Amino acid sequence: xxxxxxxxxxxxxxxxxxxxxxxxxxxxxxxxxxxxxxxxxxxxxxxxxxxxxxxxxxxxxxxxxxxxxxxxxxxxxxxxxxxxxxxxxxxxxxxxxxxxxxxxxxxxxxxxxxxxxxxxxxxxxxxxxxxxxxxxxxxxxxxxxxxxxxxxxxxxxxxxxxxxxxxxxxxxxxxxxxxxxxxxxxxxxxxxxxxxxxxxxxxxxxxxxxxxxxxxxxxxxxxxxxxxxxxxxxxxxxxxxxxxxxxxxxxxxxxxxxxxxxxxxxxxxxxxxxxxxxxxxxxxxxxxxxxxxxxxxxxxxxxxxxxxxxxxxxxxxxxxxxxxxxxxxxxxxxxxxxxxxxxxxxxxxxxxxxxxxxxxxxxx
Length: 364
Hints:
Layout: H1 11-14, E1 22-24, E2 43-45, E3 67-69, E4 89-91, E5 110-112, E6 134-136, E7 158-160, E8 168-169, E9 172-173, E10 180-182, E11 190-191, E12 194-195, E13 202-204, E14 226-228, E15 236-237, E16 249-251, E17 259-260, E18 273-275, E19 297-299, E20 307-308, E21 321-323, E22 331-332, E23 345-347
Parallel strand pairs: 1-2, 2-3, 3-4, 4-5, 5-6, 6-7, 7-10, 8-11, 9-12, 10-13, 13-14, 14-16, 15-17, 16-18, 18-19, 19-21, 20-22, 21-23
C-alpha cells in the first residue's frame, strides 16, 4: 500500500489478516499510528509519512517484528516508546530526534539514526545493544560524546559519525570488532588515541580541520587497510607509530603538506596507493618512500614540484601509475624511472617541460 494518500494507519482493515508478515506503507500521508495486533508481522515500513508522535504501546502487539522502518517522518522523541525485543533492524533516519535513549534491544543488529538533530551522546548510550553490528549517526549535529559512549558495543563492525560538528575526538576504544570508522565531514581539530581496535580496516578522517596527527594516535590499529586524511589542513606528515603491514591505501590529498620526515613512511612496507595530490611540495624526497616496495600508485599532481632528479622514481618494481600533472616541472633528469619496469601510466601534463632526456626510461 505504498505511494498512496492514506491519512491514517489502516488498523481496523488489517487486524483480521492474522497471517500478515510484511506491511509496507511508505510514501503516504499517515500522521498517527494506532496500536494493532498482528502476531506474525516481521516487517513494518512506514517511511516518508507525517508521523510526529508514537504512542508508548504502539508496537506491543508485534512480538515477532524484525524490521521497523520509520525513516523520513517528523518523530521528535522515542524515549517512552516500547519497542519489540525481537527487532533486528531499526531505521529512524531523517526525523527530528534531539536525543538518543538507551535502547534495550538485545537482538538489534542495525540502528540507523542519521539525518536527525542529535547534538550530543550520553554516557554508555548504547550499552544495552550488545549484538549491534552497524550504527549510523551521520548528518546530525553531534558536537561531543564521552569516551564511554560506545562501551558495550562488543559486536559493532561499522560506526558512521560523518557530517556532524565534532571538533575533538576524545580518547575512546574497546570496540573490539570494529572494522569501519567514519568521522569525515566534521570540524575535527584534534584526534585522541584509538584503543583496542585491532580489527579496524577503514578509518575516514577526511574533510576535517586537522593540522597535525600524533604518530601514536593509531598505534593499536594493526589491521588498518585504508586511512583517509584528505581535505584537512595538514602541513606536514610525521608518519605513524605501530605495525601497519596491512595498510594498502594512504590518502593525504587536498592538504597543505610541504614537508615529510625521513621516517614518515617506514611503517608502510606493504602500501599500494599513496595519494599526495593537491599539496604544497616544491620537491619530493622519494628516497623516503624506499621502504614502500609494493607501491602501485603515487599521486603528486597539483603541487609545486620543479624538477625530477636522477633516480627519483627508480627501483619501484611494482609502480604502475605515477601522476605528476599540474606541477612546475621543467626538467626530468635521465634515469628518473630506472628499473621501475611496471610503470604503465605516467602523467606529466600541465608542466613546463620543453624536452625529455632519451634515457629517462632506461632499464639497467
